[in-house]
Amino acid sequence: MPIGKELAERAAKEISCIKLSPIDFTDFTFVEGARRKGMAGGDVWEDYIYGLLEGRLVEGDNNSRILALAPEAVADIVNTAMTEESSAESYDRVITAYITKKKVSRISRDALSKFVSFLDRLKPEIRQQFLSRSGSLLSENSESFEEVVREMTPEKFDRVAALFSEQASQIPAALKNLMEKLSSVRMTNTSNFDFFYNKTAVLHDIELGDDVIKLFGDDSFHAFVSEEYQQELDRMLSARGSYNIAFAPFIKECEEEVIDTVILDIMLDLLQTDFLTEEDYRAIGARVIDFLTVFIETGRFQQIYETYEVMTAQMTGEKFIHETAGILDYFRSDEFITNMVSAITLWGRKERDGAIRLAGALRNSVINPLFAALEEAKDPSVRKFLLSVLESMGTDVLPNAVSRLNDKQWFVVRNMLYLIRECNGVKEADKIRKLVRHDHAVIRMEAVKTLLHFRTPDAVSHVRAFLKNPDPDIRKGTIRLAGTYKVREVVPQLIEYLEKRDVFGAEAEDKIDIVRALGDIGDARAVASLEKIYNSLALFNKGNIEELRVEIFKSLDKYPVGAVRKLIEKGLSSKNEKIRAISDKYRMAL
Question: Does pTM top 0.70 for this prediction?
Answer without folding.
Answer: no
